[in-house]
Design goal:
With 799 residues, the chain is of the alpha+beta class. It is built from 25 helices and 20 strands. It has 4 domains: 4-322, no CATH class; 337-398, no CATH class; 402-550, 2-Layer Sandwich (Beta-Lactamase); 604-791, Alpha-Beta Plaits. It is rod-shaped, with a radius of gyration of 51 Å.
Amino acid sequence: MSRRRPVETIVHWVLIGLTVVMMAMATRDAWNRIGRPWPGFPVMENMLVGVAGVDRMGLSPFDVVRAVNGRLVTSTRELQAEIERHPPGTTMHYLLVRNGQLLEDDIPTRVNTLRNFKRFLLENLMPGVIGVALAAIVLRLQSVTPSTRLFVVFSLQWAIINVGYYDLLGAHRFTRLFFLAWTFSPAVFVHLALTFPERRRLAQRHRWLVWTPYAVSALLYVWLQGSLAQAWVATAGVIATYWTAALLALVVALGITARHGSTALIRQRARVLMLGFGLGYLAPVAGTTIEVALRTEVPFLNESWRLGFLFPLAVAYAIVRYQLFDIRAVIRLGTIYSVVTGLVGVGYAGLLTVLNVLFARLDMHISPMVAPALVALVIVLLVNPLYLRTQALLDRLFFRGRLDAQRALERLADAMTTTLDLERLAPLIVSTVEAVVHPERVRLLLPDESRLTFRTAAPSDGIALGDGGPILACLRTLRSPVTRERLLDDPALAAVRDDCLAEMDTLGADVVVPITFRDRLSALLALGPRRGGAPYTSEDVRLLRTLASQSAVALEHARAYGALQAALRRVDILESIRAGLSKFVPRTVQQLIEQAPDAPQLAKREVDVSVLFVDIAGYTRLAERLDAATVNRLVERYFGAFLDEILKNGGDVNETAGDGLMVIFQDADPRRHARAAITTALAIMRRAAEINETATHDEPIVVHLAVNSGRAAVGATKIEGTAGTRWTYTASGPVTNIAARLAALADGEGVLVAAATAERLPAGLPLEDLGELNLRHVEAPVHTYRLATQHAVATATLG
């Protein structure tokens, strides 16, 4: 709240206090006049006969009193002194001026009685008290807004007019204050017509229209105070005409709003206020204007002023029925406090009496402070439970809706502790809102994954709001529910009013409630009109804020749970992909990707390896003799057995080509991967022999194997073509080439081993030296050894 608001509130309360003081002084003057004589007809301070339906004893409005009993009088004080010189009831001879002509009249004096004072209380003071009470209630219930400020000013000036009118015709203490309030009353009517209960577009476009009537009233007041009798009467006629015209404009404006207001609630308020102003004030104000302007007596004018009670009744009805100013919460709290206070008072007196009687019966003489102290202690211990029980009882009896709403919120809180599915949580929140405030429709809007758009939780709705929209910006700024009435009333929202109302029309909402989590707008509720045309009260808004606070954490948990579920599903998919790819991707590549998923170390690098080449001899002949399915089953059976041995010894199947495959062995110790390659080769020969013994095909499968060791370029190779790019992970260089050429020379009875590998094998291994072999496409001869098949079992655990 700005510093201006508390100061302005204090100023309003000071004005209310001054008005109460003025009313108290006028009441005291009226009481003091009881028993004193008076002329028998009302006379104002400027010696003009009064108007507005008072008994003038046959005189006309605004006759000028010049002399009494032959003595010239220039002030009401001289007139009163002359009256008091004679006994009450004495007929006084008056010289008067009417329309510029002298005339004489005899009128007996009268005495102010208690009946006159009671009439003042009912016809003048009571409307004033009601006006001040309305101002105080509105100021207490509402924050200081332009509408609040205007209503307080109207109520106070109307109280001054009602109470001050009696003073105007009697004590003359507040004459200037009365005419100030009366002269500015038309300006207040015009202000109300332009801005209440909603600000008109004309006033929004031309703000000077609101303040121009006040300037006119100020000029008329100055002119009125400086005028002589005849000019004063003419000026008063202008002010009275202005007064009636302004009131008529207000009634017409309220009628237009009642028909074309922006919301149903505003239309209902305008309809009630139109009836209050029209029935309560229009007839007496128009009648008074006729008397002032035309100086003609209007019959039953005094009685018509009693219709003024209809206006506060209309305002009270609008407050209770249409929440013109939200008073329901105050009534509830006031009732609770009153009942608790009464119970505490009765309990205190009863307990104190019981204790005193008890001590007297027991003939105990104790200090008089003991019993009150004991009772006070009991009251202190019981007052809080008493307050809570009283609150629960009154809520159950008279504020059932609030109790039901509280229970609905408690059920929602319990349900949200076990609900993590967003698809179940969203309908739960919507149904709770429907149970709490009974709107015609509710929409829950949630942000998408990018948080750039808010969409309704119900996919069939199809309504979406951009993150940069005006209503979302307004909610982020205010961090509280936004209603249509707030947009129309709050001048701070004038810049975004039209855009926000347009988006609320799109949503079909009368109230939009933000759901925030850690200063971030995580969702929003859009509520349509309440069923039955009832308004949203401040209590409803408070309940919606509580519901939004509860929902924020639950929605965030549900969103996090949904993200976790999606992540787990992605992990499952990745695992299935990993399991599938592992059939085609070398284990080394899998390990590199697992170690650094974002940037696997697949670039080619020189590594010391051992390369095992496996070739099935006679594959082409088998393919010609057998059908493709049989050949494929044979290859899968042999290669499946071979793969078990390869993986068991840490090898990577690097390439397959129908009847052959290349296996790479790596290790930090060069001797270890060489021995692993030889062990795998011998195991493959053993497994092939085992399968041949049980196979049903005509001739056995012969496996040619060769092993070579050395440094090779191991890594990814990119193959680019017009159809796309393909990556392969392989080893290249002379080491692999020599292993392939040696495998082509193998006879199926042993494993050919290059010298680079033989050097790394254990001493004493029965290697047959084949000498230098010339290999195709290899420049230098390769020293080669042969490990015979009969040593396969003996060397199965080599390395």
